[in-house]
Write a structure and sequence with these properties.
Layout lengths: L4 H49 L5 H11 L3 E6 L2 E6 L7 E6 L5 H13 L5 E6 L8 E7 L1 H53 L15 H55 L5 H27 L10 E4 H14 L6 E6 L5 E4 L1 H21 L4 E9 L3 E8 L6 H5 L16 H12 L3 E8 L2 E9 L8
Parallel strand pairs: 3-4, 7-9
Antiparallel strand pairs: 1-2, 1-5, 4-5, 6-8, 9-10, 10-12, 11-12
Protein name: histidine kinase
EC number: 2.7.13.3
InterPro entries: HATPase_C_sf (IPR036890), HATPase_dom (IPR003594), His_kinase_dom (IPR005467), HisK_dim/P_dom (IPR003661), HisK_dim/P_sf (IPR036097), Sensor_HK_Regulatory (IPR050736), Sig_transdc_His_kin-like_C (IPR004358)
């Protein structure tokens, strides 16, 4: 129960009400003690009237008057003369004297606490002003034990009443919190759970109706967030449908362009000078169009399959990537170099890593070829305590600022003319699937370097 908002509120309310009652209890007990002593002074003054009425009193009558007043001695001062009105033997020496004339509140509280904590039979002297101006001063001696008993009884009744008030107040506040705070919060939580089951359903968007300003502001903010999320999901669904349509069009267009490419290849054997001059451009344009269709189809898949992790040596994989690129590179134009330490073993999906490295090496080779100069592409690796690092470095012209800004964004990070920019986006996605990251380490006039970081342990992935 104490793990709930209402339970904790109930406990805190009880504690605070009891604390308030304690703060009221102490002055109340002090006031009760003062009234008790004042009443004893008044009774003693009334008893002393019998002595004023006659010069002598019978001993039995005097003892009865003192017993009714609850005191041992009565001293009344009139006309600056101190007179002993009534007296009887004291069983004990006087323990303390209390003056009730213009006594400060803190002193009253201190004396009351002293009486409550006192033990044994103690005799006290009490001094006060006579009522109805019956003299200058009245002084009595009395037993403190009856006073202490009365104060304890009064305090117990106050504590019981305080406890009842605390329980009733806490129960009322508990019911109020349940009605005005907890139930509206539960309604909001229930609405969130309902919306989470079908976020595309606009009918499940919350409608603010809380009467409390803070809760209504929270519901309004939640309504705005759910409205935006529903719109985003709808837009995502439309984009997915559009992407599916584009993929179908790209598939058919690729087949058409492949046929056109075959015909264009035959045109290169023509003896017509104009055809010889235009055929390479036609073949290049068709080739770029085919590559764009293939990249679009690759990126348009719903998602890449999760990596199948296994340990393997990196050097043979890099050698295969470099050998494939050498077939497309004119001899002597771009040097492809492998610098993988012997016995370098990592844990990854070899097929997906092959795709990533192929893309990076191909981009580096094409960047150097576009300059018309010779260059070098190097694949290297190193091992650290927590990570494996693979580097693809080239001596090309570097990436332009626009390409760096949108480097891993599909259809925006392309560098080569006619490129789609999908290659790096797909490569980055594959590396993220391993729990790693693909970074641009540097890019300037001396060349470009990409770094692949793969974690040595990937608890979120299953091998």
């Amino acid at each position: 129960m104490f793990n709930t908002l209402s339970g904790r509120f109930l406990a805190l309310t009880t504690v605070f009400v009891m604390l308030a009652e304690v703060l009221i209890f102490v002055p109340s007990v002090a006031r009760f003690r003062q009234d008790y002593l004042q009443l004893r002074l008044e009774r003693a003054q009334i008893a002393s009237l019998a002595l004023l009425a006659s010069d002598t009193l019978d001993a039995d009558l005097e003892a009865e008057l003192l017993e009714n007043a609850g005191v041992y001695n009565v001293v009344l001062r009139r006309d600056e003369v101190r007179q002993l009105a009534l007296s009887s033997p004291l069983p004990e020496p006087i323990h303390a004297t209390y003056d009730l004339r213009e006594v400060p509140a803190l002193t009253l509280i201190r004396d009351a606490l002293g009486t409550l904590t006192g033990t044994g039979e103690r005799i006290i002297r009490v001094i006060g002003d006579p009522v109805q101006q019956g003299g200058l001063l009245i002084e009595v001696t009395m037993d403190e034990a009856p006073l202490r008993a009365e104060m304890l009884d009064y305090g117990l009744r106050i504590l019981i009443l305080s406890a009842v008030i605390s329980v009733v107040t806490a129960a009322l506040l508990f019911a109020a919190v349940q009605a005005f705070l907890v139930l509206p919060i539960k309604r909001v939580v229930g609405q969130i759970q309902s919306y989470a089951d079908a976020p595309e359903d606009a009918r499940r968007i919350i409608s603010p109706r809380a009467s409390l300003r803070e809760l209504r502001e929270a519901e309004t903010a939640l309504q705005a967030m759910e409205t935006q999320l529903t719109s985003a999901l709808r837009q995502k669904d439309r984009l997915a449908q559009l992407g599916s349509g584009v993929a179908k069009v790209s598939h058919d267009l690729r087949n058409i362009l492949t046929s056109a490419q075959l015909f264009a290849d035959r045109l290169e054997g023509s003896e017509d000078p104009l055809v010889k001059r235009m055929a390479p451009k036609l073949v290049g344009s068709i080739t770029r169009a085919v590559n764009l269709c293939e990249s679009t189809l690759a990126f348009g898949r719903a998602e890449e399959p999760p990596p199948q992790l296994a340990r393997f040596e990196l050097a043979p994989l890099v050698a295969e990537v470099i050998e494939a690129e050498r077939l497309a590179t004119p001899e002597g134009e771009v040097a492809l170099v492998e610098e993988i330490p012997a016995g370098f073993v990592l844990r990854a999906d070899s097929e997906q890593l092959f795709r990533v490295l192929s893309n990076l090496v191909r981009n580096a080779r094409q960047a150097i070829t576009a300059t018309g100069k010779t260059g070098r592409v190097t694949v290297s690796a190193r091992e650290e305590d927590e990570e494996w690092w693979i580097f693809v470095t080239d001596t090309g012209p570097g990436l332009p600022p626009r390409a760096r800004e949108h480097l891993f964004l599909a259809f925006r990070g392309g560098v080569a003319k006619g490129g789609s920019g999908l290659g790096l986006a797909i490569a980055a996605e594959l590396v993220r699937g391993h729990g790693g990251r693909l970074e641009l380490s540097r890019s300037d006039e001396t060349g470009t370097e990409f770094a692949i970081c793969l974690p040595r342990s990937a608890p979120a992935l299953s091998s």
